[in-house]
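Quick one, tokens below. Sequence please?
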């Protein structure tokens, strides 16, 4: 027997981890009741989307971390790899939790996508008039669509235009959406907005959206369960062919993962503002997912380490490496987030800037500043030093903080579309419900499997991993 095979690394009789799944399950029940009882009809959809996508980012980040370790054939992360493996194995749980959301959108109970849903359902030709058409015709065409509740200017578009040049003689009547007050806008602006929506109806339509949502969820579940299953079988038979299989499939899996994550971000988050677009948006979501899973892996690993559940398999050296990755992805998240803002600011196109206008008023400016200083400045300054990353207590505090900032980040993506800044009980309840169900499964799974991939052929090398700098 080699050193790698001598230990099973299971939870065993550890009091905390043997029953750790109970706490999130209780929180899920409490959160579900809180969300259902307190949520206004027009808020529940936003709250549930925020909670669902927040939890999905942990699962997606875990899937990325496992795939990238196999693609690079790295040995240093083998001992801590079981943590993201277990988290990514919750992909079917995310699928199940997404079903109420998809059904809510299909049935119209969740109306956060009503703008493009109405456009695809009724058609939008309001902006397709010839240049010779009069403004009266444009306004009349808009009024005809409004009879069906269709094709209003997006909330942020209307709000941004409140700061326009005041040409009231060309203003159409205020449009009232399901979550915004009426705002005046010119017939030309309305026509342009309608034309943008009309061009997107081939992609942004209810049937296509729901079909793609299921495809994304199924893809993630297949990849996650396949890799988790092979890793678990290797625990039993110690056959290196499982590692070779996972390594050979990692590049293709990463390409599929990247594409599905990007389009899921477009469909679920970016389409909340139907006329807005950003080609870097999916990369921002990916960066946040990587930050979230690295922080979660460190926190769970520290809990195992302090309780002696992983012996010497996970050491401060491993935590230092994970901390370096965390620091790197915090900087990467900042880079892509700033790049999106800078390019939109530099171009000066109103249709692109409206997304930021909405997040710079009605109380959201504070959240924007919080993300700048809390998601980047503080982690950058407090994790840049090697000494700080080797201080496990300090690293633990910073991981909690980074996860909190990640949750705020997703909140900032979703909830401004529902109105001014206001943390409502439904928002907290939905997060507790979705997060509670997901992590109840994850913590339960930790009690069933070895906490270290004991059959991996690179385990022995990882056990003796040390840093030279």
């Amino acid at each position: 027997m080699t050193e790698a095979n001598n230990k099973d690394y299971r939870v065993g009789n550890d009091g905390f981890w043997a029953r750790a799944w109970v706490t999130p399950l209780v929180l899920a029940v409490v959160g579900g009741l809180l969300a259902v009882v307190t949520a206004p009809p027009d808020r529940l959809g936003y709250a549930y989307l925020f909670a669902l996508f927040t939890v999905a980012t942990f699962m997606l980040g875990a899937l990325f971390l496992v795939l990238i370790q196999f693609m690079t054939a790295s040995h240093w992360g083998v001992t801590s790899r079981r943590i993201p493996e277990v988290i990514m194995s919750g992909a079917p749980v995310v699928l199940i939790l997404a079903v109420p959301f998809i059904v809510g959108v299909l049935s119209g109970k969740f109306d956060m996508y009503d703008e493009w849903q109405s456009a695809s359902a009724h058609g939008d030709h309001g902006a397709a008039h010839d240049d010779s058409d009069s403004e009266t015709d444009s306004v009349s065409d808009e009024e005809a669509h409004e009879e069906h509740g269709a094709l209003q200017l997006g909330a942020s578009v209307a709000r941004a235009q409140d700061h326009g040049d005041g040409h009231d003689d060309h203003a159409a009547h205020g449009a009232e959406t399901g979550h915004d007050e009426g705002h005046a806008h010119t017939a030309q602006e309305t026509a342009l907005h309608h034309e943008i929506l009309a061009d997107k109806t081939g992609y942004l339509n209810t049937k296509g959206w729901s079909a793609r949502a299921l495809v994304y969820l199924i893809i993630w579940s297949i990849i996650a369960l396949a890799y988790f299953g092979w890793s678990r079988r290797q625990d039993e038979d110690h056959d290196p062919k499982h590692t070779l299989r996972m390594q050979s499939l990692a590049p293709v899996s990463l390409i599929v993962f990247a594409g599905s994550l990007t389009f899921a971000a477009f469909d679920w988050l970016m389409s909340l503002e139907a006329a807005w677009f950003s080609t870097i948006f999916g990369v921002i979501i990916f960066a946040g997912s990587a930050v979230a899973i690295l922080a979660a892996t460190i926190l769970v690993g520290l809990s195992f380490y302090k309780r002696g559940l992983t012996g010497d398999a996970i050491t401060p050296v491993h935590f230092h490496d994970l901390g370096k990755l965390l620091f790197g992805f915090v900087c990467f998240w900042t880079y892509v987030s700033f790049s999106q803002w800078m390019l939109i600011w530099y171009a000066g196109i109103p249709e692109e800037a409206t997304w930021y206008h909405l997040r710079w008023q009605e109380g959201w400016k504070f959240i924007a500043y919080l993300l700048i200083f809390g998601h980047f400045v503080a982690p950058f300054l407090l994790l840049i030093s090697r000494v700080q990353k080797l201080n496990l207590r300090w690293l633990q505090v910073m991981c909690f903080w980074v996860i909190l900032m990640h949750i705020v980040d997703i909140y900032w993506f979703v909830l401004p579309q529902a109105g001014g800044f206001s943390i409502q009980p439904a928002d907290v309840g939905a997060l507790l419900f979705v997060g509670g169900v997901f992590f109840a499964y994850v913590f339960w799974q930790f009690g069933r499997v070895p906490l270290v991939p004991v059959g991996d052929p690179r385990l022995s090398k990882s056990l003796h991993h040390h840093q030279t700098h």
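Strands lie at 171-172, 185-186. The CA atoms of residues 59 and 87 lie 6 Å apart.
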